[in-house]
From TrEMBL:
Name of the protein in question: DNA ligase (ATP)
Highest taxon of source: Bacteria
EC category: ligase
Species annotation: Streptomyces coffeae
Alphabetized Pfam families for the sequence: DNA_ligase_A_C (PF04679), DNA_ligase_A_M (PF01068)
Keywords from the named record: Ligase
Entry's family note: Belongs to the ATP-dependent DNA ligase family.
């Protein structure tokens, strides 16, 4: 492979904001695997956000990209899976499997799509220093004839349209809006764009903790919600605390610490088959590899309020943000019923496909 922009390339990133800024170019924020695609003739490489290759996990996508992309190009975009008219991140996670036979089977049953939103190189020319407006025009032209499963992400210069997208597109599984300066060159690894994501709050049971990598202080709080059968389901973690607060939390939670996991709602967490029946901490993950997933059980008696952006099935899609303790709330009242459900929106209307 001999391209003007060679792998690996760290993708350009975004910093969070509370509101959609004026005077920028706007796109939907896709909920998938960020990927940079390098094509040089018959050679194709799909690189992840961390630089690891993704090509082997998406053979159907590799074939479509070879068939539809310009002969020599580098694109930035998102790998997604669409099911039932919305993005399905859980199905995407299943595609990262060590067995080639499993990968091939899933390529047929849950095929992926690629949504392109930037062009880093075309032919012999690097576009890294080219303003966004020109890169985007070149991308639109380069993919003019592309068809499913290769798409060009819709964009707008209208802030009001971006606000409408922010409200409507969540129902299709997208998680916000990204704003990009018109004259911006491509700046790998830098947070020079702006992302605006949905934020809601929920009252959750704190049923466990994990230690911080630095030592015996709180690394993350394990959060739970009760389902309609009265079973406490693990829905995510809250982890962003200053070191002093991590130490304080350890002291605050010490009276709730259980000597063993016996009698805890997640007592069966170490048995892999138990995860098929309930959501518990320590579920096997192909992303974490040999990472230590052990945790400290706490009596599920304290409630905290957390902020979250959106749900992925029955769990928080991203790490929840701790807001405050809620001593006025009973743990049994922390149920899924409190969660807001976005209005459904068909993803085909976002991509303009049928």
């Amino acid at each position: 492979m001999d391209l003007p922009v060679m792998p690996p390339v760290a993708p350009m990133l975004a910093k969070s904001a509370a509101a959609i800024p004026a005077g920028m170019r706007y796109e939907a924020k896709w909920d998938g695997f960020r990927a940079i695609v390098f094509r040089d003739g018959d050679e194709l490489e799909i690189g992840s956000r961390t630089g690891k290759p993704l090509t082997r996990y998406f053979p159907e996508l590799a074939g479509a990209l070879l068939a539809q992309l310009p002969p020599r190009c580098v694109l930035d975009g998102e790998i997604v899976i669409v099911r039932g008219g919305r993005l399905d991140f859980d199905a995407l996670l299943e595609r990262i499997h060590p067995a080639d036979s499993r990968v091939r089977m899933l390529a047929g049953t849950t095929p992926a799509s690629f949504v392109a939103f930037d062009l880093l190189a075309l032919g012999d020319a690097s576009l890294m220093d080219t303003p966004l407006r020109e890169r985007r025009d070149a991308l639109t032209e380069a993919l003019r004839g592309a068809t499913d499963p290769v798409f060009t992400a819709p964009w707008t210069d209208d802030q009001q349209v971006a606000r409408q997208w922010f409200e409507q597109y969540e129902g299709a599984g997208l998680d916000g809006v990204v704003a990009k300066p018109f004259g911006l060159g491509y700046r790998p690894g830098e947070r020079v764009m702006v992302k605006v994501k949905h934020e809601r709050t929920a009252d959750c049971v704190v049923a466990g903790l994990r230690h911080h990598k630095s030592g015996p202080v709180v690394g993350s709080l394990l959060l739970g919600l009760y389902d309609t059968t009265g079973r406490l389901q693990h829905v995510g973690v809250s982890a962003a605390f200053p070191m002093r607060r991590r130490q304080e939390l350890m002291t605050e939670l010490e009276p709730l610490r259980m000597s063993t996991v016996e009698g805890h709602p997640w007592a069966e967490w170490a048995r892999e088959e138990a995860h098929a029946q309930s959501r518990m901490p320590g579920a096997p993950s192909r992303w974490t590899g040999v990472k230590d997933l052990s945790w400290v059980p706490l009596r599920p008696e304290r409630v905290c309020e957390v902020a979250y952006d959106h749900m992925q099935g029955d769990r928080f899609r991203h790490t929840a943000r701790f807001r405050r303790w809620r001593p006025d709330r009973e743990p049994r009242d922390c149920t899924y019923a409190q969660l807001e459900e976005p209005v459904s929106y068909d993803l085909r209307q976002v991509l303009g496909s049928t």
